[in-house]
Amino acid sequence: MSDPTVADTRRLNSKPQDLTDAYGPPSNFLEIDVYDPQTVGVGRNRFTTYEVRMRTNLPIFKLKDSVVRRRYSDFEWLKNELERDSKIVVPPLPGKALKRQLPFRGDEGIFEEAFIEERRVGLEQFINRLAGHPLAQNERCLHMFLQDESIDRNYIPGKV
Amino acid sequence: MSFFSFGQSAEIDIVLNDAETRKKAEHKTEDGKKDNYFLFYDGETVSGKINVTLKNPGKRLEHQGIKIEFIGQIELYYDRGNHHEFVSLVKDLARPGELTQSQTFDFEFTHVEKPYESYTGQNVKLRYFLRATVSRRLNDISKEMEIVVHTLSTYPELNSSIKMEVGIEDCLHIEFEYNKSKYHLKDVIVGKIYFLLVRIKIRHMEIDIIKRETTGTGPNVYHENDTIAKYEIMDGAPVRGESIPIRLFLAGYEMTPTMRDINKKYSVRYYLNLVLIDEEERRYFKQQEITLWRKGDIMRKSMSHQAAIASQRFEGSSSAEKALAQAQAKEQEQ
């Protein structure tokens, strides 16, 4: 009969871990890269697109490796869809830089290299944070943004 | 306090009979300071003397009666005017008359019921005190002496472990287990967290102890939550099949026993909050109530019991039985 005045602090029994689980790839692999900014169009109709590449082993995503091209306003569209339809607190996007779009600037405005790089980093942080959110992963708009060739703005919002 | 310098005044001093031997316990006051007070348990007799010392020797002190009260009361901070007294005993020490010299009066409150533990909380206070009063026409002279009451329990007969599987569909499944549901204040929480499915990027996991003080009834219920402890149990990313042990020593934290619906005025409950935090600072948590109880100091009892058992080895069964019976009789006396 164990002495009641001294507590038993031995560990509780647990199943030994399967070695394939211990040394296998983790089930939470999700990496999204935002890179290769390209400016398309001419004159006042120019805009910058970025390549968004997602690699994952999460079963909720249909494609385990996908590449799409997206521009800043696509990211804005995604943020608005999620703020409206889901209960999550959507992470912030890098700035809209309206000032940079005004004429008579000394520099290239929104096509300035340093600015594009700053924006690229912000967009990458944004999409990684968002795609890892369990509730965001249920939204049709996130899957369309990451894995469909183009965004159909007339889509029917809903859960996956 | 008398501002009239004419006439007589007196000082009252309350002294317990067992002041030398009775233990003191630390108790927090409302402003957070800790003080030592005499410790009493339910059923114990409160006896002592009050010394009434005349400030101007030679002059008489006229009074409308001298009494001593033993009071147990609950005070809700948002309703300060109303003290709810759940124990109120009074002993008259002197009928109206006059004191010509300083005098001492004996008092005894026999086997006083002290059903609840002394508690100083965020929104409510429960206290026990002696109040000696010399009643006078214009203003009474009184002195209070606060005591602390602890409620003791013994090891619960039923103390099942807590074991549950929780999670987010297709994202995170864990099974958590705590070895008991009722812990005493110096106990150890032994448990484990077993990961069944990990599709999120966990950075670390901690276990918090939350104290919830509930005051008020009906539509005016107010909960005050206070995180008493935060204890990291895992640093890094777990995978399926991993088991993380928990060993949390409660003695290091300032806690009270669980108090349920004390005199229908307030409750103090404790919860274990298991918190997982992912790479993006998102928090996933599961709260589970535990019952805390106060264990009596059994050191002396177990010593005599152990001495009786030890004597079995050397003297044979009949004298061991006698020694055991003697030890038991001693315990009953205490």
From TrEMBL, chain A:
GO terms for molecular function: phosphatidylinositol-3-phosphate binding. InterPro entries: PX_dom, PX_dom_sf, Sorting_Nexin. Residues 1-24 are annotated as: Disordered. Keywords: Acetylation, Lipid-binding, Phosphoprotein, Protein transport, Transport. The keyword Phosphoprotein applies. Belongs to the sorting nexin family. This is Sorting nexin-12.
Automatic annotation (TrEMBL), chain B:
Pfam families: Vps26. Residues 317-334 have a biased composition (Low complexity). InterPro entries: Arrestin-like_C (IPR014752), Vps26-related (IPR028934). Keywords: Protein transport, Transport. The keyword Cell membrane does not apply. GO terms for biological process: intracellular protein transport. Residues 310-334 are annotated as: Disordered. It comes from the Eukaryota. Belongs to the VPS26 family. This is Vacuolar protein sorting-associated protein 26B. It comes from Esox lucius.
